[in-house]
Automatic annotation (TrEMBL):
Taxonomy, superkingdom: Bacteria
Lipid bilayer topology: Multi-pass membrane protein
Ranges for region Disordered: 19-52, 413-438
Organism: Streptomyces ficellus
Basic and acidic residues bias locations: 20-29
Membrane spanning stretches: 129-150, 215-235, 269-291, 297-317, 324-348, 368-394
UniProt family annotation: Belongs to the autoinducer-2 exporter (AI-2E) (TC 2.A.86) family.
Entry protein name: AI-2E family transporter
Pfam families assigned: AI-2E_transport
Protein keywords: Cell membrane, Membrane, Transmembrane, Transmembrane helix, Transport
Main location: membrane
UniProt feature, compositional bias: Pro residues: 427-438
Length: 438
């Protein structure tokens, strides 16, 4: 009987060790440490033979596409979204084209008159009175110029018609005597075809005249909108700009606040420089036309001044108009002399006046000018061609400033250099000249 307690103790110790082993195995299975052993293969599934080829796992579909194609796809859908946004924006602008052009014209006029308001304010005039005096004076001057042009054209219309008739007869005689072998019958046939074309298209010409009345009403509405917008921009331009800044997200507001004044200085420099260059062109070409005894010299000078606001195209159109008037009124020789005057003045403008007057404030590549004028003309006609170049110049200034601002912010946010990097980036003192005796 004395051996029974010892045997029971051994049995209890064995059961305890067995329980600990079961607990350890259960813990290993729960933690995954015991999953390294391969699971037994069911006897119903035979293993593959040794000569069977290995089958590679299928790759991820995204990894199967070449890297260049993935980059192109990522850029493609972003470009599609951007193109859709621009298309919707252009549709909105086309729907309110009159308002947009009137406001842009008001911006250009404000850029021209703003320095006068600031000067009158510094002289002691109240802001409202200075704005009223500047705006009224500017509008009166523009109105008088328009009235003078119309008056000159109407006053010389009879003389112009007689000179045109004589010029056509002289041109006819010149063509008959020219080496182009033009006969009088061919000239008469051309004149008869023109007359028949005008007679058959009377309805289209009448509808065009009615459409011209609609255009005149829209033009008058645009002029009134531009006048009111100019008044408010001259008086409350700073408040309007501060209100626009509130619409910009707070993170981008400092950059936009710095780009705005620089864009305004670029626009002001462009408008002032263009006005000065246009006045010089109009004065010198007008004097040349006047001394060559071409009629309507003053109205042609005003047209040259107005068309000078359209880069490249305006100079060609106004110069061609002056040459045509000289041709039909004074003959071929006078027309050639007018062409020489126009080309000489335009060469001086392109190579001397614009680089000297505009300087570096407005620097746009000629290709960008051509593309901007063409795009503006296709989108919004003459008004779009006028505002295209200043828009490109302002955009160039804004993009350049925002790029420099973002780079500066990135440098400020970067950690300061330390260790060997700090030594490499630290400014090195300039080399000193060796002393005497060294």
């Amino acid at each position: 009987m004395t051996k029974v307690p010892g045997w029971l103790g051994k049995l209890g110790a064995g059961l305890t060790r067995m329980g600990k082993r079961l607990d350890e195995r259960r813990a290993e299975e729960e933690s995954g440490e015991g999953g390294d052993e391969a699971a037994p293969v069911p006897e119903s599934v035979p293993p593959p033979p040794a000569y069977a080829p290995a089958v590679a796992a299928r790759p991820d579909p995204a990894a199967a596409i070449p890297w260049g194609m993935r980059v192109a796809a990522e850029a493609g859908w972003r470009l599609l979204i951007l193109a859709g946004t621009l298309w919707v924006l252009m549709k909105i602008i086309s729907a309110v084209q009159l308002v947009v052009l009137a406001f842009v014209a008001a911006l250009l006029i404000t850029a021209l008159l703003q320095p006068t308001v600031g000067r009158l304010t510094r002289w002691g005039l109240p802001r409202g009175l200075a704005t009223a005096v500047t705006a009224i004076t500017g509008f009166v001057v523009m109105g008088l110029v328009g009235w003078f042009v119309v008056w000159q054209v109407m006053d010389n219309l009879g003389d112009i018609s007689d000179r045109v008739r004589d010029g056509i007869e002289e041109l006819k005689r010149w063509l008959l005597a020219s080496p182009f072998h033009v006969t009088e019958q061919q000239i008469n046939d051309i004149a008869k075809n023109l007359s028949d074309t005008i007679g058959t298209n009377t309805q289209e010409i009448t509808s065009a005249g009615l459409q011209g009345v609609t255009v005149m009403m829209e033009l008058l509405t645009g002029i009134l909108l531009a006048m009111f917008s100019t008044l408010f921009l001259l008086y409350d331009g700073k408040k309007v700009w501060l209100w626009v800044l509130k619409l910009v997200p707070s993170l981008a507001r400092p950059g936009v606040a710095g780009a705005g004044p620089r864009a305004w200085r670029t626009l002001t420099a462009y408008v002032r420089g263009t006005v000065v260059v246009a006045m010089i062109d109009a004065i010198f070409i007008g004097l040349g036309i006047y001394f060559l005894d071409v009629p309507l010299a003053v109205p042609l000078g005003v047209f040259i001044f107005l068309f000078s606001f359209i880069p490249l195209v305006g100079a060609v159109v106004s110069g061609a108009l002056a040459v045509i008037v000289a041709l039909v009124t004074q003959g071929v020789f006078t027309a050639l002399m007018v062409l020489a005057v126009v080309l000489a003045v335009q060469q001086i403008e392109g190579h001397v006046l614009q680089p000297f007057i505009l300087g570096r404030a407005v620097r746009v590549h000629p290709l960008a000018v051509v593309l901007a004028v063409a795009t503006g003309g296709l989108v919004a006609g003459i008004g779009g061609a006028v505002v295209a170049v200043p828009l490109v110049a302002v955009t160039n200034t804004v993009v350049g400033y925002l790029r420099a601002y973002s780079e500066e912010q990135a440098l400020r946010a970067a950690p300061p250099p330390h260790g060997a990097t700090a030594v490499e980036t630290a400014p090195t003192p300039p080399p000193q000249a060796p002393r005497e005796g060294e």
